[in-house]
Amino acid sequence: GQDPLFIFPKDKLVEEGSNVTICYVSKSHQNNISCYLEGVRMQGEQLDPNVSVFNLNHVAFIRETGTNIYCKPGQGDGIKGTVLFVSKVLQEPKDFSCETQDFMTLNCTWDPGSDTGLLKQLSQSYTLFESFSGKKTLCKPKSWCLWQVAPESQDMYNFTLTAENYLRKRSVHLLFNLTHRVHPMAPFNILFKNVSATSATMTWKVHSIGKYYTLLCQVELYGEGKVTQHNVSVKVDGAHLFSGLEPDTEYLAQVRCANGDYFWKWSEWTHQNFTTAEAAPSEAPDVWRNVKTVQGRCVVTLFWKPLSKPQAHGKILFYNIVIEYLDRTSVSEVLSIPAPASGTELPLNQCSSQIRITASNSVGTSPASVLVVSREPGNEEVEEERVKGTEDGFPLSWNPQPRHVTGYLVEWCEQPRDPPCDLQWKNLGPNVTSTVVSSDAFRPGVRYNFRIYGISTERVPYLLARKTGYSQELAPSDNPQVVMTNLTSHSFTLSWKNYSTESQTSFIQGYHVYLKSKAGRCHSGSEKAVLSDDVVCCKYKIDNPEQKTFVVENLQPESFYEFLVTPYTSVGEGPHDAFAKVTTPDEYSPTLIRILLPTVFCILLIMITCYLKSQWMKEKCYPDIPDPYKSSVLSLIKSKENPHLTIMNIKDCVPDSIEVLNKQEGTRKSLTETESTKPTYLYLLPTEKRYSSPGPCICFENFTYNQAASDSASCGHVPVPPKAPPSQLGLLTSPENLLKALEKNYMNSLGEIPAGETSLNYVSQLASPMSGDMSNLPTNPPEPALCSEYKMQMAIPLGLASPPSSGSSSLSSITLLDEGEHY
Amino acid sequence: MLPAAGEPAAGDSWGLLACLCTVLWHLPAVPALNRTGDPGPGPSIQKTYDLTRYLEHQLRSLAGTYLNYLGPPFNEPDFNPPRLGAETLPRATVNLDVWRSLNDKLRLTQNYEAYSHLLCYLRGLNRQAATAELRRSLAHFCTSLQGLLGSIAGVMAALGYPLPQPLPGTEPTWAPGPAHSDFLQKMDDFWLLKELQTWLWRSAKDFNRLKKKMQPPAAAVTLPLEAHGF
């Protein structure tokens, strides 16, 4: 041909493991032809410049489409190839076996092994040959074949199974008796008859294998976790009685059969379910009670556990409760509680009673469970003991009772935190003195209380022991809510009365009081402690968990403190967070407050009183118009010194005149008695004829009516005549000169007025009841006692007044004294 | 000449899927495809175009499996043997100017005839396949290709073109001749799949061109097309 390259052999079929030689022949002398086996270049042997061979040893099966071998020259896109078909080695059929179900057909099966089919070669074929009959059949399926049993009742069969492909042939032989190869079909039509609470009869049918053969059937019963097996010989129909069954229980029954004469193989199972009938409950319900007194009446709460399936023997429909009062005064009560209730609350007419509880299903009633309720609460004052829970539960033990008991009972609440309780109980025999209470409901950090009762022969429970504990103690997660009181400069009091030690996550052993201060010193009773954040503080330890107050003392005034109260337990203490802050007050502040407050209060009280009584005060102390009669000065003078001193009546006074009372010093008393009715008036006004001008003119200004004048300095308002001698005016400018002037004028006036004959008696209209002045009045009278009284009722113009004469100096001095000494 | 189908890339299938999703998303928005009354050949052209893209994607998976079944060197990415025994296969490659100058009838007729032949060859391929799974995949693809053929026939009918009648005695067969070696048979299988891929790619171009022609210029939708091969 025109092809420059040829490859041999062309599309060869070989068996796996063969050795193959590939050869190529090139027309041209090309040396750079490369050949590949499945893409991998082959190294061959060049026989001559145009021919090369490649030896392939133990070729392996790669794929059904064959192994590709191709060559291509160095130049050009020409490619030449061949496909080497490598077949798997044909295997001998395995597990060749024949059997019949009905003596009509034989079913022969085998394991064909690997398929040797290729694109070039079909898969291996199978042929069945029987030597006695000389018959042969080609088996289309690769793993089984059907053979028609000869009608002339051939017993012996000798089969040859031959597997064949393009390259190889393999055969296996099998000789057997047909009756020994019977594999019956599965039984059918299973029925259950006469199903009662404890027994049932099962019947079934089998496919006949001929009237001369007996089938052996195997019956199995599954129920309540158990299996029972029975063998039954069957000709046509099978039957078997199941006895000793549980009431109201579902069972599964199954049956299979084999040739009873020559066992070959069991048939397939045929199975069916059935349920036994109900029966009366076999056990009394497990009942417990809780007795309480409500308004003087016993109320019993009954709890019972649902009967287990083997005990209930059917669906419990209701629970019957019969209350019999022990003193026979009340008639018995009967109640029926529908299921699935697990308890009820019963108010009793009388405490002492016996309660019988039974459970009923559709068939009957269970035995009764008896409880006796008595008024006596039993030994309620049993001391509580602590118990340590483990992973397995709470180990509880108690002392054996000297008196006869029918058993013990442990009760506890699985949800002890309010309000749910979920009362649980466990009945124990009379010889048991310890048990382990375990429950999936037990949680770490929850306190469980256990009460152990002994049940007397009269069915009366009495409390034996109380235990409390944690399945696992947890460190407190909260600290008490602390209230701080009595804060002083040196101490304060902490109180956590509301902290319940009972409802914590572990047993509280006491409390630690941490105190942080800047000073960092710890006093006696405390110790230094370093917190997790490296803060050093003082720690006070309280060993009594019921002591819920603490006084922190020895503090510094005006200092900042932080404190924390945390409970400690065997598994640690509460969290060290949320320190409360406090600053102690000043040391003196409380004292000051103690003084200041009452003082301020008193002042306020006085001020309020004064305000309310201001009118009275004003009248008493500084009336607008001084009333001599109301003046206390007068009464004092009168009572102490001069009871005869009288007050001048205004009506008796002549306006604008000075009443001069002349009294003899020595006979003061007589003068007063004899001449007081005729006072002598010194007329000041020049209208009087007796005093022709230039007569003396004395002007008394009443300061009561001129407040402004009275407030100002005395000197400037002294009605000094404009033409007063300069020397006299100059003397008046200073107090010392004034005194001298007074003495001088006083002496002058004494010289002019006959001693002991006249006195100028002046009663100030501004008279204030100054006791000191009063007492001075009689003791320091000016000698000679020249008394004069005045009452100025109107102001006099200065122009009208005559310049003072020397004779009027004494009057002038009196005025000055009045201003300066309140005389 | 139209460029030959390129090499498959890792992200090609995802890109094509995204493209298909985009096409399907925009289908209701194309005004030419939403006209009420007689829709004309537009929708069927669009459907045919979509089908070619779908089959192109489907063939990529099938060809990979089949070429692995044949073994090396047929499953090697750079394998490009001479087209020796596959002369009876309809050629998809054509001069670009010739392709442009094709009228609608001729264009559709060429497509119809090509897929008729290719389908026949493909069924022969299916009969030879040794594994059941491969036979299933090939049968499924044949059914799809039959659908494409019907779709093209529908377009031609809508445009009023008669279907080409097969000449008697020219029914293609895929029986290996006595001189046809198994290696050459594998080469023919390789070329069948490659030519099928090229035809699907060309058909997408053909129907895209037809689609544009059938639509008003303003409503023209340009769909990005990429050359994909195996």
TrEMBL record, chain A:
<feature type="domain" description="Fibronectin type-III">
    <location>
        <begin position="186"/>
        <end position="279"/>
    </location>
</feature>
<dbReference type="Pfam" id="PF25552">
    <property type="entry name" value="LIFR_D4"/>
</dbReference>
<dbReference type="InterPro" id="IPR003961">
    <property type="entry name" value="FN3_dom"/>
</dbReference>
<keyword id="KW-0472">Membrane</keyword>
<dbReference type="InterPro" id="IPR003529">
    <property type="entry name" value="Hematopoietin_rcpt_Gp130_CS"/>
</dbReference>
<comment type="similarity">
    <text>Belongs to the type I cytokine receptor family. Type 2 subfamily.</text>
</comment>
<keyword id="KW-0325">Glycoprotein</keyword>
<keyword id="KW-0675">Receptor</keyword>
<dbReference type="Pfam" id="PF00041">
    <property type="entry name" value="fn3"/>
</dbReference>
<feature type="region of interest" description="Disordered">
    <location>
        <begin position="801"/>
        <end position="823"/>
    </location>
</feature>
<keyword id="KW-0732">Signal</keyword>
<dbReference type="InterPro" id="IPR036116">
    <property type="entry name" value="FN3_sf"/>
</dbReference>
<feature type="domain" description="Fibronectin type-III">
    <location>
        <begin position="376"/>
        <end position="474"/>
    </location>
</feature>
<dbReference type="InterPro" id="IPR052672">
    <property type="entry name" value="Type1_Cytokine_Rcpt_Type2"/>
</dbReference>
<feature type="transmembrane region" description="Helical">
    <location>
        <begin position="592"/>
        <end position="612"/>
    </location>
</feature>
<dbReference type="Pfam" id="PF21177">
    <property type="entry name" value="LIF-R_Ig-like"/>
</dbReference>
<dbReference type="InterPro" id="IPR048497">
    <property type="entry name" value="LIF-R-like_Ig-like"/>
</dbReference>
<keyword id="KW-0677">Repeat</keyword>
<dbReference type="GO" id="GO:0004896">
    <property type="term" value="F:cytokine receptor activity"/>
</dbReference>
<keyword id="KW-1015">Disulfide bond</keyword>
<feature type="domain" description="Fibronectin type-III">
    <location>
        <begin position="476"/>
        <end position="587"/>
    </location>
</feature>
<feature type="compositionally biased region" description="Low complexity">
    <location>
        <begin position="801"/>
        <end position="814"/>
    </location>
</feature>
Automatic annotation (TrEMBL), chain B:
<dbReference type="InterPro" id="IPR010681">
    <property type="entry name" value="PRF/CT"/>
</dbReference>
<keyword id="KW-0325">Glycoprotein</keyword>
<dbReference type="GO" id="GO:0097059">
    <property type="term" value="C:CNTFR-CLCF1 complex"/>
</dbReference>
<dbReference type="GO" id="GO:0005125">
    <property type="term" value="F:cytokine activity"/>
</dbReference>
<keyword id="KW-0202">Cytokine</keyword>
<dbReference type="GO" id="GO:0007259">
    <property type="term" value="P:cell surface receptor signaling pathway via JAK-STAT"/>
</dbReference>
<keyword id="KW-0964">Secreted</keyword>
<comment type="similarity">
    <text>Belongs to the IL-6 superfamily.</text>
</comment>
<dbReference type="GO" id="GO:0097058">
    <property type="term" value="C:CRLF-CLCF1 complex"/>
</dbReference>
<dbReference type="GO" id="GO:0005615">
    <property type="term" value="C:extracellular space"/>
</dbReference>
<protein>
    <recommendedName>
        <fullName>Cardiotrophin-like cytokine factor 1</fullName>
    </recommendedName>
</protein>
<dbReference type="InterPro" id="IPR009079">
    <property type="entry name" value="4_helix_cytokine-like_core"/>
</dbReference>
<comment type="function">
    <text>In complex with CRLF1, forms a heterodimeric neurotropic cytokine that plays a crucial role during neuronal development. Also stimulates B-cells. Binds to and activates the ILST/gp130 receptor.</text>
</comment>
<comment type="subunit">
    <text>Forms a heteromeric complex with cardiotrophin-like cytokine CRLF1/CLF-1; the CRLF1-CLCF1 complex is a ligand for the ciliary neurotrophic factor receptor/CNTFR. The CRLF1-CLCF1 heterodimer binds SORL1 (via N-terminal ectodomain); within this complex, the interaction is mediated predominantly by the CRLF1 moiety. The tripartite signaling complex formed by CRLF1, CLCF1 and CNTFR also binds SORL1.</text>
</comment>
<feature type="signal peptide">
    <location>
        <begin position="1"/>
        <end position="32"/>
    </location>
</feature>
<dbReference type="Pfam" id="PF06875">
    <property type="entry name" value="PRF"/>
</dbReference>
<keyword id="KW-0732">Signal</keyword>
<dbReference type="GO" id="GO:0030890">
    <property type="term" value="P:positive regulation of B cell proliferation"/>
</dbReference>
